[in-house]
Structures are given as structure tokens and as C-alpha cells.
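Lab notebook, entry 190. We have the chain sequence and a SMILES string for flavin mononucleotide, and the next step in the workflow is to get a structural model of the bound complex before anyone spends time on docking refinements. Request logged below.

Task: model protein plus flavin mononucleotide, output C-alpha cells.
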Amino acid sequence: MNRKPNYPIADFILNRWSPRAMSGEPLSDNELFRLFEAARWAPSSYNGQPWRFIYAKRETPHWDKLFNLLVEFNQSWAKNAAALVVVASRDTFEYNGKPERTHSFDTGAAWENLALQGTINGLVVHGMEGFDYKKAKESLGIPDGYTVEAMIAIGKPGKKESLPKELQEKEVMSDRKPITEFVFEGKFKK
Ligand SMILES: Cc1cc2nc3c(=O)[nH]c(=O)nc-3n(C[C@H](O)[C@H](O)[C@H](O)COP(=O)(O)O)c2cc1C
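Result returned:
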């Protein structure tokens, strides 16, 4: 572990990272749905739960539709994922139809729950913005009033050597900015 927190935090937070090496082994529905269950318990404004997840497992006819949304770079490693997920969020509250200002914020919390649960379960969970957002909306039948947020690759860990050469070097845990750069007392600091 090359990550060093400046204050003590739970191991599962520090241990979450975004590897790209996956084995290509399938995931059972039970393994996959444990992650969606974790997402389910995220907090949201007025408990609106605006997150939506559209998934495809590799061994199913749905896979190609999601895989073909990805840019070539992401395809080069995500081809070994067991499942791909498109994350969308509902822009308005279901109970009154008014805009839910925090729909993306809340959906981000759900995605992080999913990623943390995946880490705890020994899976690779890797967020992606490198895909065709417009095509995702159209090809997956995502209605107006929903925002496409991101995609996720989920799979069993694989060998680093299975990745293209240039990605093998990147297969390390990244560091973070110091707290002083993003936490401000009383007033925003530029
Ligand atoms: C919303 C989101 C989009 C991302 N998009 C991509 C992507 O398209 N391709 C990729 O290889 N990594 C992608 N990443 C992974 C980030 O680069 C990674 O999370 C970041 O460098 C921090 O590293 P860590 O997750 O290992 O801690 C994405 C992550 C998030 C949360």
C-alpha cells in the first residue's frame, strides 16, 4: 500500500482504487447485485433516490450495446470486465415533479457506495466518462428528464501483464491533493 492518509481513516476507503486489469471471469447475479444493494442505501435529498443503473453482463446479448458506447481506450481494458453499467439520474423529484438540484450529487454518493462495496468484496470497480453520452441515452432508451452521468466497469481482478504495455505502468494507486487545497475555513480560498 503506497497510500498514506494524513489522518486515520477506514481501510476500505483507502483501499478503493481503479485498477484496469480484470480476469474476464463472469460475476453471478448475487455478486453483482450486492453492489447495487450498496448503492441503494446512499443518502439523497428528500430520499428521492434519483440514481438509475443500466447494466449488461458480458455473456449476454446486452453487452455489445454498452461496450460499443466506450471510447477505444476504455474498450482496450474494459473488454475483460464481467459487467458494464451506465449510471443515469432523474432530474426531478418523483413526488412533486420539481427539479432535484442534487440529483448528480446524490447519484455520485450511490456510485461511491457501489465502488466501496466492490472493493470490500475483492472486485474491480472502475468509473468511466470516456463514452458516447448521447448514444447511451438513445440506445438504452433513457427518457428525457434523466441525465447520463457515467459508466462503470466491474469485474474480477486480473493480472497486470494482461494489460497493454502502456497501461501496465498506470496500474498503481494514485495519490491525492493535500486537504489544505480543498478545505477552507469560513471563506473560499483561491
Ligand atoms: C466519473 C469517473 C470517470 C472516469 N473516467 C475514466 C475513464 O473514462 N477511463 C479511465 O481509464 N478511468 C476513468 N476514471 C478513473 C479515474 O481516473 C480514477 O478514479 C482517478 O484517477 C483516481 O484514481 P483511483 O480511483 O484509483 O483512486 C474515472 C473515474 C470516475 C470517478
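Notes for the group: Residues 137 and 144 are 9 Å apart (CA to CA). Worth checking against the assay data. The helical segments are 11-15, 29-40, 63-67, 72-78, 103-120, 133-139, 165-168.
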